[in-house]
């Protein structure tokens, strides 16, 4: 798919720290990709998204072993939140293009 390869190319241009967080956002969305998932809610709630972003941040802390140079949550929450939302949007669009197998918007 031309659009997918273009997206992959552009993501390849992300700074390395953002690439690592993107992988974590994709993994989080993998776990949310099931029928009835809140990822496909017409209006996902902000609290759940913030909670998922924090989970991604905790996983990043475990995997990246920042040591004393670890950024604070407040420094990372916007980046992680945007990466998560972007990945959710990509999957929601893909689901719609496939004709929505009954899990998007209660169809």
Quick structural gist:
By secondary structure, the chain is mainly α.
Tell me what you see in this structure.
The chain is mostly helical. It is built from 4 helices and no strands. α2 (16-31) packs across α4 (73-97) and α3 packs across α4 (73-97). The two termini are 26 Å apart. Residues 102-107 have low confidence and may be disordered.
Features:
107 residues, mainly alpha
Provide the fold topology.
Layout: H1 2-12, H2 16-31, H3 46-64, H4 73-97
Helix pairs in contact: 2-3, 2-4, 3-4
Q: Report the structural category.
A: mainly alpha
**Shape by Cα distribution:** globular
Report how far the terminal alpha carbons are from each other.
26 Å
Order of helices and strands: HHHH
The profile of the biggest β sheet is: none
Helical amount: 55-70%
| Number of E-type strands | 0
Alpha-carbon Rg, integer: 15 Å
- Overall average residue pLDDT: 88
- Low-pLDDT runs of 5+ residues are 102-107
Strand-residue proportion:
under 5%
Number of helices: 4
């Amino acid at each position: 798919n031309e659009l997918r390869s273009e997206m992959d190319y552009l993501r390849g241009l992300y700074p390395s720290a953002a690439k690592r967080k993107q992988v974590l956002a994709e993994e989080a969305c993998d776990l949310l990709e099931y029928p009835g998932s809140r990822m496909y809610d017409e209006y996902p709630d902000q609290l759940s998204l913030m909670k998922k972003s924090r989970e991604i941040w905790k996983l990043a802390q475990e995997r990246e072993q920042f040591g004393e140079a670890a950024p604070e949550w407040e420094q990372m929450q916007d980046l992680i939140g945007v990466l998560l939302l972007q990945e959710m949007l990509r999957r929601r669009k893909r689901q719609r293009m496939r004709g929505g197998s009954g899990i998007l918007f209660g169809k």
